[in-house]
Amino acid sequence: MTLAVSILLMISNFGFGGFVGEMLAGMMEDIFGWAAYVLPFVLFGSVTFIISNRENPNAYVKVGAVLCLLALVCTFLELVDKKGGLLGELLAGNRGRRRLCGGYYPDDYLSGNHHGKVCAQGCQEP
User: Cα dihedral angle (68, 24, 97, 121), rounded to 10 degrees?
Assistant: First the structure.
């Protein structure tokens, strides 16, 4: 099951998933930024690692460390190139500070408007 979901996410990321794939890829890119391309591998690897090490409590700690690393990668991408997605924005403290002229309001992520609204007040910083 996890392999199927990982393959679906991978197909979606590279634009071969049709309308549903486009929605999934957009949602993952909004949340994880560029790290969305690594997410299918992390998902599949983590689940198979947990299944193969069910009896070992250290396996859960290692999977938790991988998830923390993914969050840190999102934060790093946000700080370096503004490509860390919503998770990177939240962890880097950049939430609400990116209002561009002709760009988008990042505050609309949580309201369900993933494509944002064009800035109606001109080129102003918040």
Answer: -170
Q: In this predicted model, what pLDDT tens digit does every residue of 83-94 receive, in sequence order?
A: 989 999 999 887
CA dihedral for 15, 16, 22, 25, sign (positive or negative): negative
Q: How much is the pTM? A: 0.70
Contact of 46 with 74, CB cutoff 8 Å = no
The C-alpha atoms of residue 102 and residue 25 are separated, in whole angstroms, by 23
d(CA 73, CA 27): 18
Residues 6+ away with beta carbon under 8 Å from 8: 17, 21, 24
